[in-house]
Amino acid sequence: MDVSVTVGIKGEDNNNDENNVGTGYNNNNVKKARLHSMLAALLDDPILADVPKKPALSDVDTLISLELGSAMRISVLKLDHTSIDVAVMNSATVKDLKLAIKKKVNDMEQSTMGHRHISWKHVWANFSLSYHNEKLLDDNSALQDYGMRNNSQVFSSITFP
User: Which PANTHER family match (predicted)?
Assistant: First the structure.
């Protein structure tokens, strides 16, 4: 529900309701348009290349924490020898890492191919993550318990029954 508030200036006739109808709505649209154009210009800056195109507050918070040293960047090497980088808090668990990977891959797929459904239940049932030849099987384990720190590299591998 949009609410329009008109502020009067001393010495002006502020009782002319016909001139004030819709002013708040138009003003809000102009502000939103300016904000979106400024955000788009900022996100096109190469320095901010690691910020998602449609960042959530949690994404920005994690990236700020990364700069402050309370988060870490993890590189995930995939089976096709490409890698993706994700940022997680220093206190993150294996589950947090999997969620960050899921979000990053979904964002990349969305931007390149449009809507595409990936069955993450199937992915995690058939593939596992490992760090220094140790599989990260317990979702509740802290990444730091495995010795991970900023700029660590995790490997994706096929899980055999």
Answer: U11/U12 SMALL NUCLEAR RIBONUCLEOPROTEIN 25 KDA PROTEIN, U11_U12 SMALL NUCLEAR RIBONUCLEOPROTEIN 25 KDA PROTEIN
Distance of CA 115 to the CA centre of its chain: 17
CB-based contacts of 15, cutoff 8 Å, min separation 6: none
Q: What is the pLDDT of residues 95-106, one digit of tens each?
A: 999 999 998 888
Residue 71 CA to residue 148 CA, distance in Å, equals: 11
Adjacent-strand bridge partners of 88: 72
Q: Judge residue 128's burial from the number of C-beta atoms within 10 Å of its C-beta, 0-12 exposed, 13-18 middle, 19 or more buried.
A: middle
Tell me whether strands 83-89 and 71-77 are parallel, antiparallel or unpaired.
antiparallel
Q: Tell me the pairing of strands 71-77 and 152-158.
A: parallel
Q: What pLDDT is stored for residue 89 in this prediction?
A: 93
CATH class belonging to 50-158: alpha beta
Instruction: Give the residue ranges of the chain where pLDDT is below 70.
Output: 1-25, 42-43, 45-53, 115, 160-161
